[in-house]
Design goal:
This protein is an all-alpha fold. The protein has a single domain, classed as Fumarate Reductase Cytochrome B subunit. Helices cover 65% and strands 2% of the residues. The protein contains twelve helices and three strands; from the N terminus they run αβααααααααβααβα. Strands 2-1-3 form a three-stranded antiparallel sheet. Helix 2 runs antiparallel to helix 4. The longest helix is centred in the middle third of the chain and has 32 residues. The chain is globular, with a radius of gyration of 44 Å. The N and C termini lie far apart (154 Å).
Length: 331
Amino acid sequence: MSGETGPGDREKPGSEKMAEERSGKEEAQAGMPVLPPASPAPPESPKPKPAEEAPAALPAQATRYYVRFSLGQRYLHAALFSAFIGLALTGLPLRFSQSAWAERFASIVGGFSAILFFHKCCAVVLTVTFLIHVGSIFRRGVLRRERGIFWGPKSLVPNPKDLADLYHHIRWFLWLGPRPKFGRFSYWEKFDYWAVFWGMAIIGLSGYTMWFAPFFSKLLPGRWLNIALVLHGEEALLAVWFIFVVHFFNSHLRPESFPMDLVIFTGKESEEEFRKKRPEEYERLVKEGKLDLTEVAPPLWLKNFGRIVGSLVLLIGFVLLVLTMYAFVRG
């Protein structure tokens, strides 16, 4: 029957299997490698997804600056301190003319008469600078009726808050309270400002009285010329010592300004410096939406110029301070 398998057909696969085993053993004995049966290929692993790009770093915010002083104000201050240094350099040798250092300085310059000439020239420059400033205040405050000149947070006129700031500042010095928040002008800056008016009234008028003595002797008794001489010398010495000690320290040698505050040279200070030094002014401008900042930094040459000039003025001031105190103590 076609559907049945005979005995020969059933044994053939077995004999073939045995023959293959014998063939494999013979190949192994002959040194031929026996390949293992092929294993199924491993499933393909999924392709990794491309890494997501990291967000680009935000650019660092540029330093912003607050314009504290205009170019005209800086020019005026430059004329003021130049004239003052000139007056100190020429006036102190006249005041202590008996000292050895004063006599040596006079011999270098060309004598005490030459020193007196330069002293008068500096006095004229200081007077003109003072009158220009007073004229500017009159024009802005009286003619233009600009608000905030004579009263308010932008004014240099003392107000009750300055007394409160002085009180709280002393408490802060003694670790008895927080530091007060200063506005556009602190109480010591206002004191320095009005000291110029006091100096022009006392030192300036007495100096011009001696300069034009024949004219004033027709208007005043002779003893007033002697009084003018004493007032001029003692008040000028007090002013020089005050500027070289108190003003220099408050403006440049305080921890937050050391070694030098360049704002009077560049006209600008960084936003962070402005916020730390004058938090009340900063908060007021932010609240009123009037905080005008610029990213234009002061030029490097101007900052270096300020450092050189400022260092020179500080050096001259300290040298004159030591010499005059030495001469004053020795009589």
